[in-house]
Amino acid sequence: MWSAVYEVATTKMKEEADEWKGLMDVSLVFIAIFLAVLTAFLVPAAQNLLPPPSSTSTGSNATSSPPPLPPQSDENVCALYYLALIMAMCNAVLRQNAPRTDDPS
């Protein structure tokens, strides 16, 4: 009797594990695509925060003014891109390690 129950439980658990693995693979692929697209936007936005090459002279003129700061809007956009990047990576890690408990049966 117990061997039959064990077989049924093992079969059901294997089916559920295979289903979770398939869902996990699809989810990780979409997260990877999102991260690639986000990085494509993040690199130019981060480069906009740097001063232009002409303002970073290496001369010995001590009276030159420091380069101007980037606009606050550029800093905010860059911060949001970095936040989205960090949250997507955390989502991928947590989603990969979290057990699924949404099945009511």
Automatic annotation (TrEMBL):
Ordered alphabetically, the record's keywords are:
Membrane, Transmembrane, Transmembrane helix
Top-level taxon: Eukaryota
- This protein's record includes keyword Membrane: yes
Residue segments, region Disordered:
52-73
Compositional bias per record (Low complexity), positions renumbered to this chain = 55-64
Q: Which residues cross the membrane?
A: 22-43, 79-94
The protein's matches in InterPro entries, at most eight in alphabetical order, are given as: DUF6535 (IPR045338)
State the coiled-coil residue ranges: none
Q: Does the keyword Translocase apply?
A: no
Report the residue ranges that make up the DUF6535 domain in this protein. Answer: 2-94
| Pfam families linked to this entry | DUF6535
Protein's name according to its UniProt entry: DUF6535 domain-containing protein
